[in-house]
Automatic annotation (TrEMBL):
<dbReference type="GO" id="GO:0009229">
    <property type="term" value="P:thiamine diphosphate biosynthetic process"/>
</dbReference>
<comment type="function">
    <text>Thiazole kinase involved in thiamine salvage pathway.</text>
</comment>
<keyword id="KW-0547">Nucleotide-binding</keyword>
<dbReference type="InterPro" id="IPR000417">
    <property type="entry name" value="Hyethyz_kinase"/>
</dbReference>
<protein>
    <recommendedName>
        <fullName>Hydroxyethylthiazole kinase</fullName>
        <ecNumber>2.7.1.50</ecNumber>
    </recommendedName>
</protein>
<keyword id="KW-0067">ATP-binding</keyword>
<keyword id="KW-0808">Transferase</keyword>
<dbReference type="GO" id="GO:0004417">
    <property type="term" value="F:hydroxyethylthiazole kinase activity"/>
</dbReference>
<comment type="pathway">
    <text>Cofactor biosynthesis; thiamine diphosphate biosynthesis; 4-methyl-5-(2-phosphoethyl)-thiazole from 5-(2-hydroxyethyl)-4-methylthiazole: step 1/1.</text>
</comment>
<dbReference type="GO" id="GO:0036172">
    <property type="term" value="P:thiamine salvage"/>
</dbReference>
<dbReference type="GO" id="GO:0000287">
    <property type="term" value="F:magnesium ion binding"/>
</dbReference>
<dbReference type="InterPro" id="IPR029056">
    <property type="entry name" value="Ribokinase-like"/>
</dbReference>
<keyword id="KW-0418">Kinase</keyword>
<dbReference type="Pfam" id="PF02110">
    <property type="entry name" value="HK"/>
</dbReference>
<keyword id="KW-0784">Thiamine biosynthesis</keyword>
<keyword id="KW-0479">Metal-binding</keyword>
<keyword id="KW-0460">Magnesium</keyword>
């Protein structure tokens, strides 16, 4: 028992659910292994720490068999993937799958090369609990073909354009799929949940998408049987923190700092008044 009262019912009481998970995360402090890109490591570790989770950026193939069985959640992000790192990703994902440890995939810029697409397709066979990407990434992954005019890590599509493909990707992969953008969407192939929180300035800080994927990993690690709900709450909480941070930030640099501070000190009244999660 973790000492917390039973969770409130989902679907109707999103704000209560979000707060329940914030508290559970702070209480349990899950150990989250990240095999993530070199750009995102710092902000990702800091977002996890400020949420109450315990981050570990461990990616050597020599350490996976010893370390990965002991973690509570695994985040794999292909942002700066190279041939050296792919075996570690596949090995960690396999350990996670075989040990029923929830793991989450961020398919950064999946459309820019055959290598990335094949890496993602191999990783998908290890059954991630959640896939989180921007609209272009989810569209590319779902269609499994290269997009013309791909801009790399940034999205050139609106999240609403990706709802239907997210649903089909969820059905074909068996994973919950999250698409981020001005409005975020999460689907399990049947239900679609929208999240209307956040500030456009998030796009001017590198790796906020990577960081929110890691935060999703932490949320689902404390409630893996409700991955759809935990993913929606993680997206909302991260974006609520950005709204509070933006009230005092002067630009992307200080927003990054204030976002981390706001996530650290989020309280229940703030969550109650700001979480905007809805059924689509
Ligand atoms: N126009 C917007 N308005 C408000 N919030 C936004 C907007 N666009 C993105 N966001 C938020 O920014 C965060 C990152 O999402 P985004 O879709 O930009 O990820 P990404 O492209 O994978 O980022 P990165 O690759 O830099 O990590 C999410 O919390 C998302 O809700
Ligand atoms: C800029 C960039 N390039 C590879 S990963 C990354 C961080 C945002 O995804
Ligand atoms: Mg990204």
């Amino acid at each position: 028992m973790d000492g917390l009262k039973s969770p409130p019912p989902f679907e109707t009481e999103w704000t209560e659910t979000a707060w329940y998970l914030v508290e559970k995360l702070r209480t349990k402090s899950p150990l989250i292994q990240c095999i993530t890109n070199l750009v995102s490591m710092d902000i990702t570790a800091n977002i996890l720490l400020s949420s109450g989770a315990s981050p570990a950026m461990v990616h050597s193939i020599r350490e996976i068999q010893d370390f990965t069985p002991r973690i509570d959640g695994l985040c794999i992000n292909i942002g700066t993937i190279s041939e050296d790192w792919l075996p570690s990703m596949l090995s960690a994902a396999e350990v996670a799958r075989n040990s029923s440890i929830p793991w989450v995939l961020d398919p950064v810029a999946v459309s820019i090369s055959e290598f990335r697409m094949k890496a993602c397709s191999d990783l998908l066979s290890m059954k991630p609990l959640v896939i989180r990407g921007n609209a272009s990434e989810i569209i590319a992954l779902s269609n499994a073909f290269r997009l013309e005019n791909s801009k790399g890590a940034d999205s050139s599509h609106e999240s609403t354009e990706a709802i239907d493909v997210a649903k089909s990707l969820s059905v074909s992969s068996g994973s919950v799929v999250a698409v981020t953008g001005a409005v975020d969407y999460v689907t399990d192939g049947t239900r679609v949940i929208g999240i209307r929180n956040g500030v456009p300035m998030l796009q001017k800080i590198t790796a906020t998408g990577c960081a929110v994927t890691a935060l999703i990993t932490a949320f689902v690690s404390v409630d893996p049987n409700r991955a759809l709900e935990a993913t929606a709450c993680a997206l909302s909480i991260f974006a609520v923190a950005s709204e509070i941070g933006m009230e005092v930030a002067g630009g992307p640099g200080s927003l990054r700092m204030h976002l981390i501070d706001a996530l650290y000190s989020l309280d229940q009244p703030t969550v109650r008044s700001r979480v905007r999660i809805f059924r689509v």
